[in-house]
Amino acid sequence: MTRADWVIVISAVALLPFLYALYWGNAAPGDRVLVLVNGKEVLAASLATDQEFAVDGPLGTSHIKVHGGQVRFTDSPCANKLCVHTGWLHHGGEFAACLPNRVSLVVSGLNNRYDTINF
Amino acid sequence: MTTGTSPMTANRVTQVFRCAVSLLAAALIVTACSHRPHEHHEQLVVFGTLVDITIFDADDESIARASAGITADLNRLHRTWHAWETSTLTAINDRFAHGEGAIVDAEGMRILRRAQELSIASGGLFNPAVGKLIELWGFHQDDAPKGPPPPAEVVAELVAKNPQMSDLTFSDTAVTSSNPDVQLDLGAFAKGYAVDRAIGIVRAAGIENAIVNAGGDLRAIGHHGGRPWRIGIRNPGGPGILASVEVTGDESVFTSGTYERYFDYEGTRYSHIIDPRSGYPADGATSVTVIHTNGATADAAATALLVAGPEHWANVARQMGIENVMLVDKGNNIHMTLKMAQRVQFEGEAPSVVIVADPP
Questions:
Q1: Interchain CB distance below 8 Å, A38 and B213
Q2: Could B230 and A112 be called an inter-chain contact, meaning their C-beta atoms sit closer than 8 Å?
Q3: Which residues of A touch B216 (CB under 8 A)?
Q4: The domain that contains B211 carries what CATH number?
Q5: What is the pLDDT of residue A25?
Q6: Are the beta carbons of B54 and A2 separated by less than 8 Å?
Q7: Is residue B129 part of a domain?
Q8: Complex ipTM, two decimals?
Q9: Fewer beta carbons within 10 angstroms: which end of chain A, N or C?
Q10: Does residue B152 form part of some domain?
Q11: Which domain holds residue B310?
Q12: How far is A42 from chain B (nearest CA, A)?
């Protein structure tokens, strides 16, 4: 190989991480969860990392857990806990909400299988 | 390529190096200039539900305008058409109960006339005049009722009063009912109307690609970038997704299901969708999904076809002019129109499917 060839090869390899980040950065398997309070996004997190969030709404603190590429409400200061009973979400477009505490979450990402869920 | 050196090599290295650098720079410039079209989510707690708005590729100002407009309009509709909290509708019902007519504004007239048309087209299976029955079953409250079911003779008595949308007559500004037992409950229509209004507001804000999903029922316009919107239909028999459909242009996808609101009492499940003919919860189907341009029509049709059940839904769909229907019966068998079958994709193992030929 000539030096010219090496330059080409090295440039190409150097471009790879950049291209990977550009085209796959937001669309990794599991996608993202957006958490909203009063309809405004307060945080976005990858579903690829197990983590827990405490989000404050007008009634108190709602607890949200990300585990194994899924997300759910684990506790909320509301009366009937419909948000907790909704259970795990992982399909793009799925959403759950604690209406009394005005906290909601939606699974999102560019390469979702679904854009929204009908039920 | 050669491995030796020649007088030309140094020149070629420089040329190739320049070329590579130019290419890299060009790639960076192109990606920096072309903004990545983005998907935006807006969630509003209005109309007693969560309204999830998905918008593709619009500017922040348009999104904020649409969001504020939808919040204001759906709050207004909620106050106007609420079936049991004090509202314009409960005032109309009070007048009917006293044998009096009610003054209704132009929008109210349009809504009630349309509900009457749909009710008549459905052969009375979509019947928003049976508010008393819905209340009797305990579904005029935010929480699920606990039971027991109402006494059979009380149910029979209400059914015998035969409240129908055809009992209503309209003048220019007023609506009267010839039957004092007509009590309106637009539960199977108002959400569709609200979603239609919301899409109108989205369009007026200059947004071309959006989905408005109000607690599971939706209308979608435009597309998701270079592909159609993909809608997952939740499995009525359990967790997960039953099927998906692709939607472009302007279509509403509405599902009525017995699993949405119900109560269990002594081992029997009672759902919120009441068959106006018997006064008892509809029992033949678990869910019906309808695709139609207009949200209010899709909403009313999904309810009417669920009441019709697996034996009669196809006839009622024809009467109502509904071409895309999927019904899941109690045995989890799927019944579909041919048009629907051509666009539904099942997730996982295909269930037992009965396709009903479309009318000629």
A1: no
A2: yes
A3: 117-119
A4: 3.10.520.10
A5: 44
A6: no
A7: no
A8: 0.85
A9: N
A10: no
A11: 191-356
A12: 12
Residues of B in contact with A3 (CB under 8 A): 9, 13
Query: What digits encode the pLDDT tens for the residues A13-68?
Result: 777 766 655 544 443 344 889 999 988 889 999 999 999 999 999 999 999 999 99
User: Hey, what are B138's tokens?
Assistant: 């305990």
Closest by Cβ to A116, choosing from B24, B45, B231: B231
- Rounded (5°) CA angle B195-B199-B201: 115
**pTM, whole model, 2 decimals?**
0.82
- Mean pLDDT for the stretch of residues B206-234: 95
Q: What is the pLDDT of residues B305-321, one digit of tens each?
A: 999 999 999 999 999 99
Classify burial at A36, counting beta carbons within 10 Å of its beta carbon; exposed 0-12, middle 13-18, buried 19 or more: buried
Rounded CA-CA distance B252/B244 in Å is 14
User: How many C-beta atoms lie closer than 10 Å to residue B148's C-beta?
Assistant: 12
Q: Which of A1, A91, A102 lies nearest to residue B45, judging by beta carbons?
A: A102
Here the CATH number for the domain that contains residue A45 is 2.60.320.10
Which residues are within 8 A (CB) of B270 and not within 5 positions of it... i.e. 6 or more apart? B137, B147, B149, B262, B263, B264, B281
Q: How many residue contacts between A and B have a Cβ separation below 8 Å? A: 121
Of A104, A42, A103, residue with least CA distance to B213: A104
* In a domain? residue A113: no
Distance CA B266, CA B276 (A): 23
Could you tell me if residue A74 is inside a domain? yes
> Which amino acid is present at B110?
R
Q: Is residue B44 part of a domain?
A: no
| CB–CB contact B43 A117 (8 Å) | no
Compare all CA atoms of chain A with the CA of B287 and give the residue at the minimum distance: A119
Whether residue A7 and residue B20 make contact (CB cut-off 8 A), yes or no, is: yes
**How many domains are there within chain A?**
1
Cβ proximity of B345 and B334 under 8 Å? no
Structural domain boundaries, residue A42:
26-108
* Closest residue, chain A, to B233 (C-alpha): A118
Q: How many domains does chain B have?
A: 1
Residues B27, A4: C-beta atoms closer than 8 Å: no
* Domain-embedded: residue A36: yes
* Averaged pLDDT, B130-140: 97
